[in-house]
Q: What sequence folds into this?
């Protein structure tokens, strides 16, 4: 007897939805089973070899120094502190590298499309040269052929008695918190909030009345004026120390060690070559009719590129740009070759050798890199979703 109209049909593998759910369930079960097998097998092998497991080693004293640390650190601190120091060093190199690579990549990408033959060819030579040299070789070149080849501290390059460039790195004036530091931070946050409110109000006014507003100058006035008044009331937020040569090295101020400089420059220059091609492809993807329409309205080439072409090209640029940011962050682990104290060098290198907790150390290291990569992806995907075209 046929089912009456509206009756529920039975489960059948001929139904695509049933097959889809079945394949997903089977996949999840298989992944869980594989994970359980690997964990059980690892624990069994470690027990047979008398290797202890657990994360108690993180509370033990490290007993070694670190050349660069953004937070207070000494040899008596724990391995957990070493993990944090390595993480911050990795994030510092990655963040600065991403900014430099983005700026340089956009400049080179636009230059490749220049009508000037010399500029276009120079940009092409840059791209074809640096993207075809492995990043490890570029790091080694900057470290051994450039920075370590500089003269020692006594023969350093002196710039206005403020900056000293030597084989020990770049020494520069360093800042420490003054009595007006926290009021200055609060005033800066208030200025940023005021700028956001002002921009939104100006945009709403423009949409309703068509009257423009000098957002840039008003924003600049707020950004300078509010913190400036705070400095007058509470004093200087920062106290500066100038580096001085004492003995065989400099004391005081900040120092950018050669390992950090070599890593940052190499990764920035290498990644910028790929970003340049992404930018060039994104600009090429915009219809030439957009350029002709902008010219018919009297826009010059500069405003046309900034206000018409680039905003539309960003929808094509962002997805592959995210991949390059992830690659740069992961390539920072190559710094272990030149001894830069980043996550892999400190934690997966020194800490692993001292403690022998290979499984735990590698699990933590991979988990940290996974978290960093997912965070970058979420931020870039959120921005990509924000600028995506919305059909009406």
A:
């Amino acid at each position: 007897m046929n089912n009456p109209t509206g009756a529920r049909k039975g489960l059948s593998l001929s139904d695509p939805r049933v097959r889809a759910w079945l394949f997903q369930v089977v996949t999840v079960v298989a992944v869980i089973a594989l994970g359980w097998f690997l964990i059980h097998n690892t624990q069994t092998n470690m027990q047979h070899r008398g290797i202890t497991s657990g994360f108690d080693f993180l509370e033990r004293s490290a007993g070694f120094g670190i050349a660069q640390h953004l937070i207070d650190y000494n040899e008596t601190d724990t391995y957990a502190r070493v993990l944090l120091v390595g993480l911050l060093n990795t994030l510092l190199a990655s963040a600065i590298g991403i900014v430099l690579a983005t700026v340089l990549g956009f400049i080179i990408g636009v230059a490749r499309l220049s009508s000037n033959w010399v500029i276009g060819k120079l940009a092409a030579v840059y791209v074809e040269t640096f993207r075809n040299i492995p990043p490890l070789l570029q790091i080694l070149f900057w470290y051994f052929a450039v920075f370590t080849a500089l003269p020692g501290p006594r023969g350093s390059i002196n710039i206005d008695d403020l900056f000293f460039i030597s084989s020990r790195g770049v020494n520069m004036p360093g800042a420490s918190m003054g009595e007006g530091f926290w009021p200055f931070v609060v005033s800066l946050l208030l200025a940023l909030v005021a700028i956001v409110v002002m921009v939104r109000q100006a945009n709403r006014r423009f949409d309703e009345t068509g009257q423009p507003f000098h957002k840039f100058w008003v924003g600049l006035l707020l950004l300078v004026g509010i913190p400036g008044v705070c400095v007058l009331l509470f004093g200087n937020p920062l106290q500066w120390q100038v580096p001085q040569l004492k003995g065989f090295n400099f004391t005081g101020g900040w120092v950018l060690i050669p390992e950090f400089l070599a890593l940052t420059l190499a990764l920035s220059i290498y990644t910028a070559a790929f970003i340049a091609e992404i930018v060039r492809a994104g600009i090429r993807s915009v219809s030439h009719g957009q350029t002709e329409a902008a010219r018919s309205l009297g826009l010059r080439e500069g405003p046309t590129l900034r206000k018409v072409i680039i905003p539309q090209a960003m929808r094509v640029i962002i997805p592959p740009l995210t991949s390059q940011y992830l690659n740069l962050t992961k390539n920072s682990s190559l710094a272990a070759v030149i001894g830069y104290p980043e996550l892999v060098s400190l934690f997966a290198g020194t800490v692993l050798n001292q403690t022998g907790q290979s499984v735990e150390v590698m699990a933590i290291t991979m988990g940290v890199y996974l978290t960093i990569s997912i965070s970058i992806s979420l931020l870039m995907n959120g921005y990509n979703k924000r600028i995506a075209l919305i059909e009406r």
